[in-house]
Amino acid sequence: LVCKMGYAGYAPGNKVAEALTPLQQALRSLPLEKAQEILELLEKVTRNVVRNPGEEKFRSLKLTNPKIAASVADAPSMVDALKDMGWVQEGEMLVLPPSVRLAHEVHVVGLIDAKDWWKKEAENEKRRQTRAGKLDDEQKEIIQKMELDRKEKEAEGPVLHGSVAKKLGDGPNIMRAGDVGIGKSSGGG
């Protein structure tokens, strides 16, 4: 009996990325420049519901509210995130049905994780922008040096003498060790 053991293509110790939940997907599809602001609003709304699950005023959101309307205009996926939490759209309102219970460890922690993820994304984008700026300056410098070299060569004029190819004999031009005396016995032994 031959038994083979394999890792199904995964090296030991490497983590396999878990699939994102619909809520995580919605939260990660927010626009980078508005993500933190929108996540703050979502976290405030969610914390209010978690702390006061029976309060009707916290279980409905007017989409016409200026702050909410501005956030939805900046990121329509915000509504998707709320719907993934259980909110239901009824005309110009989003309502959280009484049967839906938001849990701190799921929904609030999920929003905090999303804020952390967006913070890293913002830092990475800043690094990318910085690198792109540095490359542009380096490229400009290289182009300037090439242009100066080209002008110097033009000023020197054409090359009149230089290396010229030598005609070698017909046939193979191979030199063997024996041709220079290597490996031949000198007879003195």
TrEMBL record:
<protein>
    <recommendedName>
        <fullName>PUB domain-containing protein</fullName>
    </recommendedName>
</protein>
<feature type="region of interest" description="Disordered">
    <location>
        <begin position="147"/>
        <end position="189"/>
    </location>
</feature>
<dbReference type="InterPro" id="IPR018997">
    <property type="entry name" value="PUB_domain"/>
</dbReference>
<feature type="compositionally biased region" description="Basic and acidic residues">
    <location>
        <begin position="147"/>
        <end position="156"/>
    </location>
</feature>
<feature type="compositionally biased region" description="Gly residues">
    <location>
        <begin position="180"/>
        <end position="189"/>
    </location>
</feature>
<dbReference type="InterPro" id="IPR036339">
    <property type="entry name" value="PUB-like_dom_sf"/>
</dbReference>
<dbReference type="Pfam" id="PF09409">
    <property type="entry name" value="PUB"/>
</dbReference>
<feature type="domain" description="PUB">
    <location>
        <begin position="33"/>
        <end position="103"/>
    </location>
</feature>
